[in-house]
Amino acid sequence: MQRERHLQLRTGYPVRTPRLLLRPLGFDDADALLAYRSRPDVCRYVPFDPLNRAAVIDRLAGPWATTALTDEGQALTLGVEVAATRTLVGEVMLLWSSREHRSGQLGYAINPDFAGRGYATEAARAALGLGFDELGLHRITASIDERNTASANLARRIGMRQEARFVNNEKLKGEWCTELVFAMLAGEWAGNRP
Ligand SMILES: CC(C)(COP(=O)(O)OP(=O)(O)OC[C@H]1O[C@@H](n2cnc3c(N)ncnc32)[C@H](O)[C@@H]1OP(=O)(O)O)[C@@H](O)C(=O)NCCC(=O)NCCS
């Protein structure tokens, strides 16, 4: 029998890390989100396009309003705020892919003005913690365009293993791209937990 008690994520916010607060997004975050979500360079290797203000507001009212994971297919997007300045610098996303397989997917984005300081790494580790420790997932993956070296480096930095390299298997923004799949199992998280 599975540990049913774990199969939902209803954590208290903010989730604290040494330098960051992870917390649900709100309409007050629209400007900070627009500052990087509207940038083509941020969207270069991901399957979403730059957003305008109306699209940011739509998402804040829709998918980004989720604060708990109660069933498979749901995604939780949390804002990444620097605790010392209360500045929103990015986001992390945890998708609960399958209840049966207890699997999930990780995503992250950081405002380039705040890149290179380890914030995305710290936030991604916290998201793994939510997935493994709070939701009780067995396996979390990240799918990364091979050209997105910053993202692949981050996945390795947090202890994810590269499991697959699918050559030219997806067309992204008109170009064939090679997909790297990184993964971590719950047992491996135990050795990588900060
Ligand atoms: C992927 C992405 C989040 C990586 O951003 P990043 O700035 O490299 O990641 P971090 O914020 O964790 O910073 C890590 C860098 O800061 C450095 N760093 C400084 N202080 C650090 C600390 N305390 N801890 C860890 N790293 C630190 C690291 O060495 C690293 O630099 P390096 O790559 O030159 O070695 C960013 O490129 C992005 O948002 N891209 C657009 C969206 C995207 O592609 N998302 C991924 C989809 S798969």
UniProtKB/TrEMBL annotation:
Top-level taxon in the UniProt lineage: Bacteria
Keyword Transferase: yes
EC code(s) of this entry: 2.3.-.-
Keywords in alphabetical order: Acyltransferase, Transferase
A GO term for molecular function: acyltransferase activity
InterPro entries given in the database record: Acyl_CoA_acyltransferase, GNAT_dom, N-acetyltransferase
Pfam families: Acetyltransf_3
Domain N-acetyltransferase: 20-187
Protein name: GNAT family N-acetyltransferase
Organism: Dactylosporangium cerinum
